[in-house]
Amino acid sequence: MKIAELRTYVLSTANKHYLFAAIQTDAGLVGFGEATLDHRWPSVVAGIEERFRAIAGQDPTTVEKHWAML
Question: 6: closest CA among 69, 50, 42, 63?
Answer without folding.
Answer: 50
